[in-house]
Write the C-alpha cells for this entry.
Amino acid sequence: MNNVARNTSFFENKGQIRSVASNGRKRLTGTKAASLTGASARAQRPLPVLATKSSIDGIQWLSFALVAVAIACVAYVDYLVKSMSLSYLYILPLVVAAILLPRRITFTLTLVCVFLHDVLGRPYSALPVRIADNLIALIGFGFVVAITHKFVAQRNSLSGVIRRQRDDLLKEVDLAAHVQSLFLPLNGPAIPGYDIAARMFPARGVGGDYYDYIPLPEHKLGLVIADVAGKGVAAALLMAAASAAVRVDANDPRRISETIDRLNHELHGLSDGSRFMTMFLGELEPKARSLKYANCGHNPALLFRAAKPQARWLSAGCMPVGLFPVLHCEPEHITLESGDVVVWYTDGLTEAENQAGEQFGPRKIFDIVRSNWGASAQEIVDLLYREVINFSERDTFDDDLTIMVLKVEPALGQ
C-alpha cells in the first residue's frame, strides 16, 4: 500500500482531462448524425435577448403594466408640483419601455407622456411657450427612446451572433468527440480463457483518456490505458497521435521498452516536455498466462488473486511518457492464475470526490473486486462505475473516467 500512496501523490499534480480518446476502426458515416444530436438539442436553447416581438404577449403584459404604473406615478407628481417642470422624470419609464417593449408601443407611450405633461404639468404663461415646451419634450423623449432601441437592436444582433457561434462550436465539439470515439475498440477481444471489458466515461466533450486492445504477433494481445496531462482539445489531439503511434508499433515485433522509448521520443518532440501522459502498457500471452507490463507513471493497477484472496498493486516503474527526452523503462512480468482479476483505471476513478471532499481511493476498488470477483469483466466495470456514482452523489465528474478489467477464467477441470 505504500506504493499506492507514492503513486497517488504523483497524480495530484496532473491536470484535469475532459473527454474521450477514440479508435479509428469505426466508421464515421453511420453515427455522425447521432453524434450531433446533443449539439442540436442544446442549440435549441436560445440566449436571453431583449424585446423583438411586435405585440405584447406573455411576460410583456407585466412589463407594460409596470411601465404604465410608473408613467402614472410620474404624471401624478407632475400634477402636484407646479413650481417647476418635471418632464424629465418621464424619461426613466420610457427607457424601461424601450428595453422591454416593442418599438411601436414605446413610441405610443412617448406621445402619451408628452400629452400627460401638457395636461397635468405646470400652467403655461403663453401659447408659444406651451408649444415650445411640448416640442422640446417630444424631441427629447423621442431621441432617448430611439437611442435605446438602437442599443436593443445591437444587443439582439450580438446575441444572435453569439448563439450561432455557440451552436457551431457545440456541433464541432460533438463531432470531435465522435471522431475520438472511433479510436476506441468497438468490442472486447474474444480470447478463450479470458474475459476482457472496458469502458470510457467522458466528463465533457473531448479529453485525453484512452484505452485499446491491440493484436500482436504470435497470438499475443497488447493492452493499453493512458491519460494525457491537461484537458480539452490539446489533450485529445495528443492522445490521438499517441494512439496511432502505439498501433503502428504493433505491426513490428518490438519489445515493450522499445515501444515506450519510441513513443516518448515522438511525444517529447511534439510538446518539448510541456505535455506528457501516463500509460500502462501490457502484453498478454494467453497460452502461458503471462503478462508483461510497463507502468509509466500511471495509477497502480489492481491484481486480485482470487485463490488467496489478496491484492497486488502493479505500481509505476518509470516516469510518464514525453516528460523527458530519454526514458528508460524495463517491463515487469507476472504470471496469472485462474480467477485472477486485473483492474486498470485512470485517476478519474480514484480521485472522484463526495460532498465531504473525500476521494473514492484505491481501497474501495479492492473491496468491490474482492466482493464481486465472480462476476464477469463487464459487470465489474459497470459495478465500479455505479459505486463511484453513489459515492460522489452525482452522475457527472470533473475528470474523464476509464476502467478496464481482465479476468482469467478457470481452466477446464477446475
User: Anything to note?
Assistant: The longest helix spans residues 127-181. Confidence is low (pLDDT under 50) at residues 1-56. The two ends are 31 Å apart (CA to CA). Residues 268 and 322 are 4 Å apart (CA to CA).
